[in-house]
Structures are given as structure tokens and as C-alpha cells.
């Protein structure tokens, strides 16, 4: 069996044309490409969470946050700090506030696992987004807007799949009735 293999670098640009090669050769190539991808463990300077990332990604984050590595959750917290501030603040200021908050909670004497903290923080973000005002959309694919027609912040809610499930069940029942089952 043959497979078509596209060679793509980490920035998702195509490096060469598609080629056809035997499946064993494509598996060897994939294994080689995975082995060549270097990853490093890096610790968030804010909350202490350790993540596994490529050096390129680490450098991009450090460029964005003035040489400091912060995890994805802390990055979102910094963005939230900017949004919730009553006056316009810089990313540096928001990051300093968030780092002060993290240090205060670390110094409070509560020794907790950063992974558990991550899970708790994600639950809190989800609750906040679900408690936020409903978004107005004409269709599920249209841009999310608030009631006053301003761009909203938070997670957009998906629509229920239960009507689709009901439709499938009804369709299966109709087909079984037609087949005399």
C-alpha cells in the first residue's frame, strides 16, 4: 500500500511537493521527523506549572512577555487582567499584577500541586464564561456579539445536539418500520 506524504515544517508551510512512497517508508519518515522535533521542559515564572514546548514556541512567548516564560493559563489571566482593569494598562502592568497575585497565593502557605491549580482555574474560567451575558447570533456560524452589539469576550456557547440525536433516532425507527423489523 502507498501513501501520499506532504513534508511540512513547524510553521505549517509546505516544503516540497507531495510524493508517493510505500507505507513502511512513510512510517520511518514520520518517526524520524518526530524524533527531530526538539522539546524542552519550561517552568512558568508566575504559577510554577511545567510545560513541554518547542524552543521556537518558548522564544515567541518570551518575546511577547519581556523575556519571561508564562504558561497558557497565566497568559489568559494577563489578558483578562487588561480587560477587567478600569483604566487602560499595559501588558507589563497586567503581568506584574498577575505575578504578584500568584506569589501572594504561593506565600500564603498553601502547598498545592500546579496541575490541580490549573484544573481549578479552568473550572473558574468556564464558570465565568457561562455566567457572562448571552451572546446574540443570527446563525451558529455568525460572529459573536453582545446584546448592545459590541464584541464579546469569553467562550461562545455551542448549540445543543439533542435535536439532531432525536432526528437520527426517529429516522432509524422509520427505516426499521419500512423494512418490517
Automatic annotation (TrEMBL):
Residues 1-18 form the signal peptide. It comes from the Eukaryota. The keyword Signal applies. Keywords: Signal. InterPro entries: DUF1677_pln. Pfam families: DUF1677. This is DUF1677 family protein. It comes from Artemisia annua.
Amino acid at each position: 500500500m502507498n501513501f501520499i506524504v506532504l513534508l511540512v515544517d513547524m510553521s505549517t508551510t509546505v516544503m516540497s511537493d507531495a510524493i508517493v512512497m510505500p507505507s513502511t517508508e512513510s512510517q520511518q519518515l514520520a518517526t524520524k521527523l518526530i524524533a527531530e522535533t526538539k522539546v524542552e521542559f519550561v517552568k512558568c515564572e508566575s504559577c510554577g506549572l511545567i510545560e513541554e514546548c518547542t524552543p521556537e514556541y518558548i522564544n515567541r512567548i518570551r518575546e511577547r512577555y519581556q523575556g519571561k516564560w508564562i504558561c497558557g493559563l497565566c497568559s489568559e489571566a494577563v489578558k483578562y487582567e487588561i480587560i477587567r482593569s478600569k483604566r487602560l494598562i499595559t501588558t507589563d502592568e497586567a503581568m506584574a499584577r498577575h505575578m504578584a497575585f500568584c506569589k501572594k497565593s504561593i506565600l500564603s502557605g498553601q502547598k498545592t500541586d500546579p496541575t490541580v491549580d490549573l484544573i481549578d482555574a479552568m473550572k473558574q474560567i468556564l464558570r465565568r464564561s457561562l455566567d457572562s451575558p448571552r451572546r446574540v447570533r443570527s446563525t451558529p456560524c455568525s460572529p459573536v456579539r453582545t446584546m448592545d452589539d459590541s464584541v464579546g469576550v469569553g467562550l461562545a456557547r455551542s448549540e445543543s445536539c439533542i435535536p439532531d440525536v432525536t432526528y437520527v433516532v426517529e429516522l432509524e425507527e422509520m427505516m426499521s418500520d419500512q423494512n418490517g423489523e
